[in-house]
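Hi, can you check this record?
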Amino acid sequence: MLVTETLSDGLRREYTVVVNQAELDRGLNAKLTDLAKRAQIKGFRPGKVPVSHLRRIYGKSAMAEVVQDTIDAKSKELLQERNLRPAYQPEVRLPSDEEAVKAMMDGKGDLAFSVMLEVIPEFEIKDHSGLELTRHVVEVADEEIDAALKRLASNAKEFVDKADAAADGDRVTISFVGSIDGKPFDGGTAEDVALVLGSGQFIPGFEEQLLGTRAGDEVKVHVTFPEDYGAAELAGKPAEFATRVSKVESPVEAAIDDALATKLGLENLEKLKDAVRQRTAAEFTQMSAMKLKRDVLDALDKEYSFPLPEKLVEAEFNSIWNALTSEMERSSTTFADENTTEEEARKDYRAIAERRVRLGLVLGTMGDREKVQVTEQELQAALMNRMRQFPGQERMVIDYYRKNPGAMMELRGPIFEQKVVDSLVARAKLTDKTVTKDELQAMVKDEDELGGTAAG
């Protein structure tokens, strides 16, 4: 193998690799010899097909496999020999000279290809044992437990038949047929739908027109679908729903007592209070951990500055930008609505992308140095959490992650990152500070848009 460095500019490297025809021919012969042991061709006994005959039949397809295998092996050898740490999968290109490629595939020419990559920048990991951090702690007050119990009681409320007219908060059972310009449309018809008035479950204007109705009433509800409605064929169009009210019910709040606890699967009210306290404490702990992690990342961001692989930054920026523009399109908002311009937004989000890539490289290097490992059990737990986000589609989620190693790496990244952050926190000078729930929520919300690292 003959290697020539053709570019060394900052983090960018490019090499030309030449593998002579004799080496390719040896690889081809080895592949055809192996094939001869298994080939079954009419006129020849099993395992007795001459290699020369197989070369005439399968020569080009076998050579294509040899070329790919050789490129993979020589690219890996190049990285090892030159001690290169690529920031991403190197890009490989064959020459544009069709005659040269044809000669190579015919076994009459050398294999020449280019390898392009950016390397991980060299930087020194600093000593962060003296890092000063504040952990914001929220105490679970009795008022918080009482509010949570009231929410549970509200969610557990029951509805009883009501003879009077429907009011806000009542539940009506309705059947309807929707039409546009006098013609029913797909998805506009339903039977015996339970609807709590004021819940906002239906499109704007629908529920308000059912106020004052009684069981047995028939009304025509006139609404206009929102411009950003999910079904494009209905968006912005006026519609009429011929609606029949079959039942009106009023809510009866559940009492906060042992019966409520039993309904929710616990022994008594005290057990329910304990469960609510534990869950609330866990939520506060999670918020505190998010704030603490962000403080660690902010501290590291101030400590490190080095050139970044352009391709990594571009990929991270595109991921952020695509998510942003998709959300803006979904919510029908513009940059002007956010008191900015597209040019300014691009600049701001590129800075966020650079921060994420930089911190990802720093934490990755720290983790490698400290031999941080993500266990199979931790990956499976992350996969289970992911599955819970798609109820009814668990099998599809499992199949997706099993077939896509890159997707499993996306699950691994945040776990690896958190372990490195935890190790930094363990060595830091940590001070606890008691704050209110609202104060902590504001801290987390204010910083949420900054994001973390390219890993998570």
Remarks:
- The chain has three domains: 2-118, 158-252, 261-448.
- Residues 2-118 form a domain with the Alpha-Beta Plaits fold (CATH 3.30.70.1050).
